[in-house]
Design a protein that fits this description.
Strand 7, helix 9 and strand 8 form a beta-alpha-beta unit. The chain is globular. The protein has eleven helices and eight strands. Helix 5 packs antiparallel against helix 6 and helix 6 runs parallel beside helix 11. Helix content is about 45%, strand content about 10%. It has about 300 residues and is an alpha/beta fold. The strands form three sheets. A four-stranded parallel β-sheet has the order 2-1-3-4, covered by helices on one side. A two-stranded parallel sheet has the order 5-6. The termini are far apart. It has two domains: about 140 residues, Rossmann fold, CATH 3.40.50.1980; about 120 residues, Nitrogenase molybdenum iron protein domain (Rossmann fold).
Length: about 300
Amino acid sequence: MKKHLPAVLFLLAAALLWWLSLAPRRHQMPVPEGQKPRVVTSGYVPYTLAKQLAGGQAEVSMLLPANAEPHSFEPTPGALVTVKNADIFIYVSDRIEPWAKDILASAGEHTAVVQAAQYADESDDPHIWMDFKNVRQIARAVAYALIQKDPDHRAVYQANLKAFETEITELDEAYQTGLASCQSRQVVHVGHLAFGNLTKNYDLSLSALAGSSHDGENSVRRVTELIQFIKENQIPAIFTEETLSPRLSAVVSEETGVPVLPLYTVEHVSKADFDRGVTYGELMRRNLESLQRGLGCQP
């Protein structure tokens, strides 16, 4: 055994070095004392979570302009520099933000990277934050990154996380109660497939005009099929994204005689909502109100 000991020790040392190379070393260096962590996010989902969890103890910025489409965004040289100088960079996934790989290549040596999708259940729908269980897990990952970079404010981040988790629990209960008894369970969305995780969790059926992004074209045949579906199934209302052009939903509404109500994807918001700092919880409460109205749910 002694004869093989040097070889065994060498293999153990090599394995340890390999493991350390994979460990999140970027998380291990806090910011200098008295300095706020610089948090850069891809879009509005991680932005609003980071703002709420940081509670003013971090400088949080967003790469996408308000109301920008996250799927087709092209990062500028300035965006690359911003991420390089960040203490924490948070994004959703490569599916939602295919440009993220270019951003990650420019991240600084001590930039902690949080990919939200790593903390979510697998789903065909990349809009993982529409599942309250996922968003709770994502929030914990963001809070952990903040604590690692700014341990002096650990108590603040933990308290904000606890408050957020309580809000999410209350939201989930409100959805379960508010959508339990409705005239219709068909959510017809004149937009892209952003609400699959949400409708699945509350036993609703989803029909959408486009795929999982805004890049697909809305063919005349698909619009005609959707109008026919609404008429045949006596759908009481249709839904559209608040930031989309109202022209298409207006055509569908006119052809079917049903009202149009807004739904909010959270991934991009109007400039007015951005300036006001609308939160994830606020947008999801708006969604619940629209769903209850559009589906004819009992109070």
